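Please fill in the sequence for the structure shown.

STRUCTURE ENCODING:
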């Protein structure tokens, strides 16, 4: 515990990239189980590179029938569980949300992409409504993560979307996951950011800084939004 689930019914929103960036940063401080719930197994394939941090365990081969139990079991064993899912609204996504303590909704910073993110909010609300029948105050904490944004300057599009999310009370991470060759290179080299060859991949340290800022914000949001997690995260 806690379980952090990456959800975006839109394909290519940056779920796998941001989930792996988060997992490798968290592995530097605590044990983490990554559940690769995508039938294409991108994180399992990444792990075959052999550079998996000691603190990280990867579980794949989950189905909609097994994902709930798999997450619940992992959560009893590791301080952090991170779940990556494929970009659909399949039932497996609903089952994973049911086990989540925090949901990250990655989206690219364009208006069209942001509108697609609302499908993820729909899934979160549907889960909340179910629980609220017997626990009226229940809320599942979540936040939107803007991905693949320009590192140098915030685009007008992203600024506008941030404003409209703010107005609509939709929480989003201050940290954006910038467009960086190093995030792509994690998959082509099958390595964590830390061990990417600096002479071949540009701005590795900037990407590490970015991933670390994201990890810190995830942890602080979990502590703020889910007080029952506080002890576990702090310990
Ligand atoms: N921060 C980033 N910097 C550079 N490239 C990125 C970044 N985030 C994602 N990408 C690239 O964008 C594409 C889609 O990213 P990713 O696979 O993480 O999305 P996804 O939401 O997991 O997709 P799917 O729904 O297919 O599982 C990939 O080619 C990935 O390398
Ligand atoms: Mg993916």
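FILLED IN BY: designer on duty
SEQUENCE:
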């Amino acid at each position: 515990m806690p379980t952090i689930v990456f959800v975006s019914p839109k394909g290519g929103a940056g779920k796998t990239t941001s989930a792996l960036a988060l997992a490798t940063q968290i592995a530097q401080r605590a044990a983490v189980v990554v559940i690769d719930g995508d039938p294409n197994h991108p994180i399992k394939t990444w792990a075959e590179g052999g550079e998996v941090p000691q603190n990280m365990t990867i579980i794949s081969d989950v189905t909609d029938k097994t994902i709930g139990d798999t997450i619940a079991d992992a959560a009893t064993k590791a301080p952090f569980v991170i779940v990556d899912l494929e970009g659909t609204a399949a039932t497996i996504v609903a089952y994973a949300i049911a086990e989540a303590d925090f949901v990250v909704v990655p989206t690219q910073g364009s208006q069209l992409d942001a509108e697609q993110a609302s499908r993820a909010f729909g899934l979160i609300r549907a889960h909340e409504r179910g629980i609220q029948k017997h626990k009226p105050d229940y809320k599942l904490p979540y936040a939107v993560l803007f991905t693949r944004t320009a590192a140098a300057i915030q685009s007008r599009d992203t600024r506008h979307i941030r404003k409209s999310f703010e107005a609509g009370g939709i929480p989003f991470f201050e940290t954006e996951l910038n467009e960086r060759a190093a995030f792509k290179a994690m998959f082509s080299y099958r390595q964590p950011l830390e061990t990417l060859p600096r002479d071949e991949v540009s701005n590795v340290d900037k990407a590490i800084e970015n991933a670390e800022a994201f990890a810190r914000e995830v942890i602080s949001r979990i502590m703020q939004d889910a007080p029952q997690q506080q002890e576990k995260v702090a310990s």
